[in-house]
Design goal:
alpha/beta, Rossmann fold, two-stranded antiparallel ribbon, globular, metal-binding
Amino acid sequence: MILTYSTIYHDGTITYGGYSDTMVANERYIVRFPENVSLEASAPLLCAGITVYSPLKYFGFAEVGKHIGVVGLGGLGHLAVKFAKAFGAKVTVISTSISKKEEALKHLGADSFLLSRDQEQVQAAKSTMDGIIDTVSASHPILPLIDLLKTHGKLVLLGAPEKPLELPAFPLLMGRKTVAGSAGGGMKEVQEMVDFAAKHNITADTELIPMEYVNTAMERLAKGDVRYRFVIDVGNTLAGTKP
């Protein structure tokens, strides 16, 4: 397998992926973007977009009337909300931060917001969701999320916490519930996702930056100061960084 960047190509050179000004790839691994879409706002769909689109489809969440929870409102979470809404699902954003409420409801169009620190809200929402997409990479308890699921509900993990999660068996047994994971998707599904996004005007919320801003962007990223993806303007600014 030759990855898009940081691996060795057939001729021994290192692949630089999106940091390249030109790139050659086998036609099997090329995605066609419709002409009417913004490339800078659609580029993150190839990573974050397919990461949420694929499990929504695979686990049966992409159906009208399904109640889907989205844990975490970041790069993955905001796109999960957009895709789930486009599929016709009822979407509840689940977050530890009340500051995300207005963003979730007014900007992204979620149907409801659940503050996971508020035990009254959590109690009221138990056994109401068909599925949950968990995008959080920080360590967090998943039992409260399992309790939000209906019988036969599915919790799908997209984040990768450093420490192992504690998974209680009894709540799974009693409701025949499922905890699963997902990462990315195949080329056919990526193209399907891009076409679906173009049809429904789904793009990532991005901040376009010049190449020379990358170090500052990394510092901001470490602080969580991005909404929700930095996109480097390689075509217009890469030449200015060369000696």
